[in-house]
Amino acid sequence: MLTGLGWLALEVKYLDRARSFYESFLDLQTVRETETEVALAAGDTDLVLRRPEAVPRGGLHTHFALSTPHEEYDAWKARLSESFDLVEHQFGDAKSLYFYDVDGNCVEIGQRSDEGAGITGVFEIVLEVADLDRAEAFYRALGLEVMGRGDERRRVRLTAGSFDLELWEPQLGLADGRGGVHVDVGFETDDPDAAVDAVEADACSVERLPDEARIVDPDGHHLTFR
User: Fold this and answer.
1) CB 3.0–4.6 Å: which of 57, 83, 128, 149 could bond 179 by disulfide?
2) Does residue 134 surpass a pLDDT of 80?
């Protein structure tokens, strides 16, 4: 049902400082900007940096993962280690680096494919939830499939194929990352109305527009289907 990530929004205090971070350290390019937000291209996904001046706000202390080709990982590690105290983990035959941006978001760069160059997309977002069973049922209704669970069932990993969502009850994860609160995410879908229909009964609010639909999930995360 959900075919891709359109955007992930992060709340930042200072637009210039946040943009400089992602442009300087990750080579992301600005694709649009206003007085209150800047959008940078992370592959086909926009990473939106937003001042807290309206609703929806961007997510706070959000852990998210950016993809890079396997062959470029070592170059990223060498480059970023000059400025950050990196944390590294290996998952099967893939590795990931963890570090923090200037607003306290836990940024991961992970080996994800052999295609493209540089940062090629966003492949994972972690959301903080109050009730794991409720949140899992909500996102499974949108077509996501369970990939794994935490040993103590305090987290669950779901996938839509092209990206993953992790749902965490409040906790510290790898590199002391936390799930984001009031995260604003845009999803690509073949049928926005069908996506809304699947979860409308459990959503906190629903707004249907001509070309997209917006909802708020039970944990206060803002989801847009387009």
Assistant:
1) 128
2) yes
